[in-house]
Amidase domain-containing protein
Amino acid sequence: MSIPSNYLTASECIRLVAEDKLTVEQIALDHLARYDERDSVVHAWAFVNRDLVLSEAKKLDALPKEKRGPLHGAVLGVKDMINLPTQHNSPIYKDHRPNVDAGVVAICRAAGALIFGKTHTTEFASTAEGPPACNPYDPRRTPGGSSSGSGVAVSDYQCSFAFGTQTGGSTIRPGSFNGIYAFKPTWGAITREGLKIYSISLDTLGLFTRSIEDLKLLAKVFRLEDDIPPPTVPKPLSECRFAYVKTDQWDAESGASPELISAWERSAKLLKSAGAEVVDIELPPSFDKIFPDIGRWMMDGEARASFLPEYITSKDSLAPYLQGHVENKTKITRKMQLQGYDELAALRPIIDKIAGEYDAIVTPSVPGEAPLGIGHTGSARLCAMWTALQVPCINIPGFASENGMPIGLTLVAPRYEDQRLLSVAGEVAKAWIGTDDDKLNNIPAPKDAVHLKV
Amino acid sequence: MSIPSNYLTASECIRLVAEDKLTVEQIALDHLARYDERDSVVHAWAFVNRDLVLSEAKKLDALPKEKRGPLHGAVLGVKDMINLPTQHNSPIYKDHRPNVDAGVVAICRAAGALIFGKTHTTEFASTAEGPPACNPYDPRRTPGGSSSGSGVAVSDYQCSFAFGTQTGGSTIRPGSFNGIYAFKPTWGAITREGLKIYSISLDTLGLFTRSIEDLKLLAKVFRLEDDIPPPTVPKPLSECRFAYVKTDQWDAESGASPELISAWERSAKLLKSAGAEVVDIELPPSFDKIFPDIGRWMMDGEARASFLPEYITSKDSLAPYLQGHVENKTKITRKMQLQGYDELAALRPIIDKIAGEYDAIVTPSVPGEAPLGIGHTGSARLCAMWTALQVPCINIPGFASENGMPIGLTLVAPRYEDQRLLSVAGEVAKAWIGTDDDKLNNIPAPKDAVHLKV
């Protein structure tokens, strides 16, 4: 191996292991070496048991080929609010060691993935204070949240893929800030068994990878089947049509930054150069109320029930912000909560119809580059709407600020067109990130890193 | 004590303990005696650890009074799909011993409830084969499902209250078959953390008790707060107006039985005698499609993701019916699933408005008495619609078939008017069950049993 395996994608490792050119043990050693080198800088992990990682790797190597699963050779990081020894970054759950995997962990473990450890999250994946994780492109900056450590671990080549979750923008935001792919599938398409509940109508498992090929592999493992399977050969961009949607938050205070505006314009130019049609559209005004009002009414209303057990048993160990949910500090009436449910439900078929008229909607992931400081994980104002609409979203990296920080943009499709979205995303990524060596450098990479794969 | 404490309601036990007239240890001993006497007949329990029950009871007795919670003296049975040592009646989870309580268990434990054990359920709370539990009124008959053991344990005086769940009719049906109160609150009003997921949009925690007072106490513990609190003194029936809704399933094959028709007519007569206004209404035809189609599209679509982990890891140990969910045997397209979401979402504010014009909707719980045989747990055709609509429902017992089997009827209110519904239910129960000794005998009771309390 000329290059340590932690710099490869999951799919590349899986292929090399299948061809007997690499062992899972070597993969584990490479990732542990990177972890040793970098964890004191970027603090991605809440829990790694190196002996367990190595012994599991050896077990995987000992498995006869016919018993190996589709993820054999991939290394998984799991957000510390998804069952597996899980602590939610809350003192209440300090000794919480559930002995049954979350559904998604069970699926990936059975498919042969090597579970590397638990990644840092904000307390209960809330918007509370950030965890110690910091941005691999600039450790003075936040990696985003709440799936902070998952974004860092994948970006920093410490695992090949990772689980996050998204209630507002907790997958898309770290995707953009850390310069990696971040996929929030249709709400409900992947089981949430074993994920701590914040808002039952919003929480969605998120996936982080360094390649679209890896996302496609995971979508297959999780059986994300559209009614109409996407074409075997992806539709070329020259036949594609994209709707550019700035959303009502673009012009808001702390809305679009200069670096977002620059990425936005460049992205459209690149798509047009590839022959695609790009159309600026505005959503009907009824979508304007989702952030910050309607979505928040639903979320806060649901969080009132979600944190009652911790509030009753261990109030003093619960962040004041989360105590506030139970105490209904934001004064969300049941009427407002129901209005949230009903208005959002009415908007979902409308966005399906609008998005269905294009190959994808292109929309911002975040207002701009990752802000300085790790106390605050950044704003979800530009991506929370899509979570509430329950549509699939992917952050595609490919742009950078003047400070050399990554910026991505989001592609959106109608609900349950996850596979089609991934197919389109692969072609868009080629245009934005490039596939030639000279284009691959249009965004910088974390220390020692090689390029993102399309 | 002239009467063993297991025949008392939770509230009665709590009061006696507070007055130093009863110890939790004595309560535990009384319940264990009943369990010893009856479990070989009715098979309510999947797991009871008598040493643990007794040692926990002694701990509760040792607690200084100022540290005691509002459920101190109550005895809880937990459906075996809610975390606590949990097996889901599936061999896959035989040794599953999660070491963190489900949210609802944590809340009740902190409130001082004595956890008695885990009650039998159908496999993963599905409509698959019934568990060994049988009806305390006639062991040849089903107690209903999937919350079979919970219904039995409360009806048979083996615990004072129990948790079930409802995805179709799994709380209301055992409530009716076992002659007890069964309350399915508004979807989302109580945390589902630690409840195995079947259908995320349908699954709801259910509560079984032998008194409305106990339900009111639990509603307080779970903080089921309406926007407008119900009146301190419940509104008298003479000022109430009830909408009688047969639903489209009344006239369907296997719809209303003669015993249901008789209960229906008698119930209206009793309400009218108490001075209430009773109006027969028909719901708009758009509600007719919910059962069996639209609700099922949503449920089957969601179950496809819910059982994938077990399917991947342990397919052979999973009931064929549940394997079928993952394999999408019912051929639910994503389009149908989304239609399920969107049509139901549109109907919810409509039913809120209709129900809001009355003090409650009165509607059947089940087609009739508990059928013979314990293999099949009965039909949800008359109650599943309300689960899909996410409105709060209560089964009020009070009627009986010629075979002496109990039949209840359901009261329904708009979403998040749970407290108001409980307030009305108390008055309705007085009319249906009666409060005078001569009226209390209008339904029979399980062996050795005393009466239901209003």
About this structure: The first helix of chain B runs from residue 10 to 18. The longest strand of chain B covers residues 393-400. Chain B has one domain: 5-442. Chain B touches chain A through 52 residues (CB under 8 Å).
